[in-house]
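Q: I have 344 residues here and want to know how they pack in 3D. Can you give me a structure?
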Amino acid sequence: MAHLQKIKRKNGTAYRLYYYLNNRRHTKYFPPGSPLNAVLAEKKRIEAGVTLDKAGFEKMDLAGRPTKLNLDEFKNIIIGIRKGYVATQNWKRNELALNNFIEILGGLSLISDLSNEAIEYFKAKRLEMGKTKAGINKDLVNIRTCLNAAAEREIIKKSEVPKIRKFRIDKTLPEILTVNELLEIEKKLSGHALLAFQIIKYTGARRGEICRQTGETAGGILWSNIDFENDTIRLLGKNKRERIIPLHPELKAILWPIRGVGKIIPYTATTLSIYFRKAMKQAGITKKGSVHIIRHTAATYLRAGGADLREIQEMLGHKNITTTQIYTQISIKHLKETIKKLPW
């Protein structure tokens, strides 16, 4: 919405912002020495103003924020902004959560009237509708993300963002596959689906890290991400966090003969899940999950094989070690099942 141009001068770097407002092109110049963070903050403020202008708001407060912004208007504004900054699957989740929010509270409810009581009312009504606590928590996370994004861009006041408390849920251990089950699934796959299975089995990657995004050509693991000389793979995880992990010798033996350029896996994450679920069904496996169960299985066997939690955290790309600690519990559960099979 606003284009930032960097200009090299003899006395330093200058910046110029281009944007359209009221059907006219505008520019704003920042002389050499202007702090980049101040320039980016002004860019963000201008973009918020452009968005509000397009939405047809005329009544603004002294800070340039719309007065009496309701939930319907808020959704249209923030989703319009999110479309330009986040992946398709992310803004669609944001939009779905806001639609659920509006269904309960009403589209004409004012942002300024949001309160902790309104959030608790939303949670209670969703429970009455038969929704799970885990599902409601996902909505709450997406709603909070949208409100915080709007406050950051000064579309709403920070004081208008209520505290959003999620339900406390006792985490259940994810299921994993046995070695025989892995082999049976592998037999039912072919082509790129089989290749994706092998990559996840040896790396513990998320499906979104190796597949392109739904409706887009962007995303997915590239052949250029594989360093055959140094035996490493570069993965781009959540929030574009990059990590480098080892290239397993078995996986290298699979990839080296077919190496090429461009994307390794042409499928979307959704398509890959369909292939995996079909293969599990054909193999007679009824455990929950499809692509992600392969990731859980890889991490569990890593732990059982002696890898410490920090190593597994790095391998899986977990932001917090507490997320990785679940594999300690899974390994113990797996060990208990193994002990039962002792021949004495």
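Q: Anything worth noting?
A: The beta strands are 2-9, 12-21, 24-30, 226-227, 232-236, 242-246. The two ends are 71 Å apart (CA to CA).
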